[in-house]
């Protein structure tokens, strides 16, 4: 009998949890609008009413098919509405010192406030990976993929 009561209790708790999770997800969908974007170097776009520009890249990742002591990192310079300059990093970012913008380099995500609205920028990918292009001027082929979430 105790097992039946315990089973019924756990089942009821499971149903309640799903209802709470569904409400939480519904509220998150209203508050946070997610948008995936791709930007080539020196390109800009409008995202959720803000202008985002990909200005520069510093890539020190270990090239493809090479053996390296450390994996390295890639740091991208972004401009938000031409007024805020930010940097984001993928890879071994603990080695990166404070930047020319006098703020620490975030691993791969950064919360930014623009016109009293909060946004979360998540850097997903920077391509091409070093050593994968034969082009001598690979700098102009860089592209970032990121997600912008309005909080």
Give a quick rundown of the structure.
The protein is an alpha+beta fold. The chain contains one helix and eight strands.
The portion of residues assigned to helices is 10-25%
Uncertain regions: pLDDT < 50 for 5+ in a row? 6-10, 16-24
Mean pLDDT: 78
Shape: globular
Question: Strands, helices and their partners?
Answer:
Layout: H1 2-31, E1 33-40, E2 44-47, E3 50-59, E4 73-80, E5 84-91, E6 109-114, E7 117-127, E8 143-150
Antiparallel strand pairs: 1-8, 2-3, 3-4, 4-5, 6-7, 7-8
Characterize the structure shown.
With 151 residues, the protein is of the alpha+beta class. It has one helix at 2-31, and strands at 33-40, 44-47, 50-59, 73-80, 84-91, 109-114, 117-127, 143-150.
Features:
151 residues; alpha+beta; 1 helix; 42% strand
